[in-house]
Amino acid sequence: MTNENEHQLALSVLNNEANKIRTLINSQRNHLCISQCKAFEEVVDTQMYGFSRQIDFATKMNILKPEEGQLILADLERELNKVYVDVYETQKEMQE
Asked: How many CB atoms lie within 10 A of CB 50?
């Protein structure tokens, strides 16, 4: 397997994993139970930590550039933060 093939395979695998986390995050966006559901936070934190380890491994193996890994993580973190902000704003509106 060439380096380019390894790189593309690593990106594909990591993007699939990122999509699984996105699905988990977005499923809670619809339920708006994030503020009452501490288990959700723990699950997402565990998933994000495991995913960051996968990215770290791919980076150390020189299959993935550090910038690429950080971009994937940053995108996921932005999505998660957006969900938290949306939930907070929705709850704030409901209280007013």
From this structure: 12
